[in-house]
């Protein structure tokens, strides 16, 4: 029987296409929003099924394609991806977020987009650095100023929410606050919430001043909440009965 030598196809020197490349790379990193939308929105697109998996595929330190998109400053792409349910709150193994990356690269508009999408501006890395600290380390002044502004705004909003939740908790207010106290607290919160919604180009100092005003209004209320409840008739009778035993 004649042996036939197995041969390999001749190497022509032409670059070989990988079996499967990430179809999201080009549109996301070049800002091709329509290309991104087509991949996610078209059910007949063969790349659509793998789009989310490829987007969230992580490297050895926990970074996915979103980190490259943030560093490249592709804010419109981030907005488009958010509409398809992509979460922008992931962290790497060392605690770095998309905000940290955008801050390091000075991508101000991307920072604004991520904050609007409720990225955590207080998240810290393994070194205890917030995105604001990273921006400061790399002398990204505009980013530092914006993140200081955003943090002051969030602090005011969080304080309002805290007050509303406290006043709505019967266990905390029963026997300590009267109806007038509750109404005054909720009214103060409404005023500050309205200000947040309607203020035209507020500064960081404006947010700090509004929060301080609210703290001053709430000081006597919180003082009442921190004092022990006065004994009720029922608890007094129980104490007397116990003393007779």
Describe this structure in words.
The chain is mainly α. The protein folds into 2 domains: 115 residues, Serine Threonine Protein Phosphatase 5, Tetratricopeptide repeat, CATH 1.25.40.20; 82 residues, Substrate Binding Domain Of Dnak, Chain:A, Domain 2 (Up-down Bundle), CATH 1.20.1270.10. The chain is built from 13 helices and no strands. Helix 2 crosses helix 3 and helix 9 runs antiparallel to helix 11. The longest helix is centred in the middle third of the chain and has 27 residues. The chain is elongated and about 70 Å long. The N terminus is likely disordered. InterPro entries: Ankyrin_rpt, Ankyrin_rpt-contain_sf, HSP70_C_sf. It comes from Platysternon megacephalum (big-headed turtle). Keywords: ANK repeat. It holds the Pfam family Ank_2.
